[in-house]
Write a structure and sequence with these properties.
about 150 residues; 5 helices; 7 strands; alpha+beta; Aminopeptidase
Length: about 150
């Protein structure tokens, strides 16, 4: 079943929906990590203002997911992608990541890089399935992170 939704640049008024989406998507990991994951405490206002945030909206114009990415040298860093828990399993996250990869290609980046917390075990299997390869694991900013890379 393919649900219709569009991806557009986030606007200032999307901040509450984006914050709610992040909090609901990542809340399940707080106990395992021992604190809120970085995406739950991000400065969404400045990320939206900088133009790095895009939202997936359904036919009713509700934000069902979002992605944050930006160019860093020769690659694009996919900093955050989240889908509302009640909207998972519809391909929204995959489409958001494909959108990021297409933008990376358009900007002549050579790859998309991302990281996830080692406790987010679903991601450790999803990203390789999408063509990302694990390149390193290290502790950073108080989190045990797993880094991935995908040529575009």
């Amino acid at each position: 079943m393919s649900e219709r939704f569009e991806i557009r640049q986030a606007q200032k008024g999307d901040e509450p929906a984006i914050r709610s989406c992040a909090e609901n998507a990542y809340d399940q990991y707080v106990a395992a990590i021992g604190k809120k994951p970085a995406p739950m405490v991000a400065d969404f206002r400045s990320l939206i203002a900088s133009g790095h945030t895009y939202v997936a909206v359904d036919a009713g114009a509700d934000v069902v997911g979002f992605i944050i990415f930006y160019q860093e040298g020769d690659h694009v860093l996919l900093e955050n992608v989240a889908v509302r828990p009640d909207a998972t399993g519809r391909g929204i996250g995959k489409r958001l990541i494909e959108f990021c990869e297409a933008e990376a290609k358009r900007s002549k980046a050579t790859s998309v890089k991302l990281y996830t917390n080692e406790k987010m075990t679903e991601n450790l299997s999803i990203y390789p399935h999408l063509g990302y390869r694990e390149i390193e694991r290290r502790r950073e900013d108080g989190f045990n992170r797993v880094f991935f890379d995908k040529p575009v």
